[in-house]
Amino acid sequence: xxxxxxxxxxxxxxxxxxxxxxxxxxxxxxxxxxxxxxxxxxxxxxxxxxxxxxxxxxxxxxxxxxxxxxxxxxxxxxxxxxxxxxxxxxxxxxxxxxxxxxxxxxxxxxxxxxxxxxxxxxxxxxxxxxxxxxxxxxxxxxxxxxxxxxxxxxxxxxxxxxxxxxxxxxxxxxxxxxxxxxxxxxxxxxxxxxxxxxxxxxxxxxxxxxxxxxxxxxxxxxxxxxxxxxxxxxxxxxxxxxxxxxxxxxxxxxxxxxxxxxxxxxxxxxxxxxxxxxxxxxxxxxxxxxxxxxxxxxxxxxxxxxxxxxxxxxxxxxxxxxxxxxxxxxxxxxxxxxxxxxxxx
Length: 345
Prior knowledge:
Rossmann fold; 7% strand; 345 residues; three-stranded parallel β-sheet; two-stranded parallel ribbon; elongated; 5 strands; Tyrosyl-Transfer RNA Synthetase
């Protein structure tokens, strides 16, 4: 199997540009990416083709969504001087590698991906019975393997996607030449963070709190949050482990507040409204510097696009070299002069 030869281990991860980011993005990816950019050669990409798998019917906001998302990346602490940001659709090499991988990937591998069935069930208002939606893990494999990433930072729900990527790399190397290393999932503990309705936080479910939400909007959303369903009256003791609000306390509140809420909820010394207000206070305190940095970035309309242009150029040189290796391994590069001889007979 090919070895990674980069001076630092290379990682790659991406996000679909669905607009401004929410707390689930921070907990599930951003806070981890910010730490990893100090240790790894980091590639973070705008997965705009992946966005089309569920939002193909209306692409009118995709450019605005890219700008908003990357603004949130930088505001949260990702540094384009320490990591490479690029746009997937600006590199046609990704589409070519996806096509070639689709030729060798068994259909059954895709049908067993757990998130496929989950999203079909949860996004019932959209027609997801498309080739693109079924095949997006193959495109994901192309994204990862294009840069020969050693690790892919993911949550546990995405581990099957990394394993599928490893299987595709193994299959390619077996059929042709050993071009691709098999990437490993880089798992880090991810705090549990549910949306206002108790489900996984997602803008598709309309249950998210955005990184850019002003304090009054945060307060409103937090007060609407579900709590322990068994706690029906103020005098009922609760179980913080079943409460989405306590999930947020564990991420955004200081240890003494977490300990107090954990204790007083169980004895009904604190009510749900007071608990929510306390959490919102600490959440707004966390968001304030992120939102200040966002305002600074927004003062330069070209900043995000300049960052993406520079990063995409760097990514392009890597992608082009990988595709030269792939075409050679698959005998898709004719011997010198052979093309010029075609048709002369």
